[in-house]
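Hi all, long-time lurker, first post. I run a small reading group and we've been trying to get comfortable going from sequence to structure in the token notation. Rather than ask abstract questions, I figured I'd post a concrete chain and ask someone more experienced to write out its structure so we can walk through it together at our next meeting. Sequence below, copied exactly:
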Amino acid sequence: MAVFLIVHAISLGVWRLFVDSRLAVWKYSPQPFGMYLFWGILVLVFIGFNFNMAGFSALKQPVRGCVATVLTFALAFLLPATLVYGYGALDSAFSAVGGTGYGAVGLIVLIGFYGFGILATGMAGWPWSDSGLSPVLSGFAQLVSGCCLTGLGYFLLIYPSISTASAPHAILLPLPVAIGWFYSVIVAWLTTFLIFDNWPWSMLRRKSHMALAALVGNFLLGTALYGVHLALLRWVLIPPDAIEKIGEMFPSWPAQLGVWIAFWLIFWANVAGNWPNRFGMGTNRVIRAASCWSLGLISFVVYTRWFSAAVLHEAEIVPGFGGDPLTWVDLLNYVMLIYVVYFQFYGLSRK
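-- Answer (accepted) --
Happy to help. Here is the structure in token form:
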């Protein structure tokens, strides 16, 4: 409970400083705040998971957490700024002029969160973890592999919809569908790795088979989740007049629901000790999944029906319903992961 409260208090403080439409001291929302926030999460994946905190182990807490956080902030500003203000001069889709480039660069993280994250988690660093490389070299190898996966996904799913080139690109999926579907893949990945102990992929004996099954299998599970989440949103969670107002962006809303489920998956595995652990593996996993999904659905309802407007001062889509869960919940995830991964619960007992 203490971690939950700390994460929300810090996140609300950041929101009041930079995002709140009524109270922000320096208003940078929705952009470029969103872009820098998303890249902060991606850099945290680089440092905390691909490199497994290599180079920081010699430092004691809280110095270790502070140094890692400062480096993350620096790279989270430098990398996207280079794309927007550098590469954006060559490709107007990424340009800061008119603010269009902020969203384009931010969407790299949608693909990259899976592209880099799956390598260090569900794939257990394969094939680099079996190559005898040092943690630093293994981390660099994962970065190169992650860049390839992310680049492929981005230029297949995202770039054709945002490109300003005179020659049209073939669109594989409409952008709202790509966003909603791919975030469902992320939810599938976090579910199988965090609360299912990498099951069912862990049933495969050879590490290479497990890694490849995890990489591909989450797309199949994510596709099924996308359909389920769309149905829940359409028939249960979003009022009909709000669906009409959302319009063509509605297929992206499984991402808005999925980010709440992702928050609870991350919280459950890293803060709540992946409760329960006393029953059989199947029973444990069912209870964990039921808990995370139930809390995710409840959080989505509370957020869209009350919290977003009353506390965060976000705009309503229709009276009594509104908000942008992705920005707020990703801020929660970012703060939580910094505290858990970088500071290792410094100052608190996990119990």
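A couple of things your group might point at:
Residues 175-322 form one domain.
The chain is about 65% helix and 0% strand.
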